[in-house]
Amino acid sequence: MSRPLEGLRVVEFGTFVSAPYCGKLFAGYGAEVIKVEPPGGDIARAHGPFPGGKPNPEASALFLYLNTGKQSVVLDPREPADRERLLRLIATADVLIENYRPADLRALGLDFATLAERNPRLVMVSITPFGQSGPYADYRGNNLIAFAMGGQMYITGTLEGGPLKNGGYQADYQGGLNAFSAAMLAVLAAERDGVGQHVDISIQRCMAPILEASVPYFCYLGQWSGIRRGNHMASFIGIYPCADGHIGIHLMPRNWKPFLEVIGRPDLGEDPRFATQADRVQHNDELMAELYAWAATETKHDLYRRAGAGRAPIAFVHTMQDLIESPQLNARGFLQRIDHPVAGEAVYPGPPWWMGPGDWDAGRAPLLGEHTNVVLESIGA
Question: Distance (Å, rounded) from C-alpha 352 to C-alpha 270?
Answer without folding.
Answer: 45
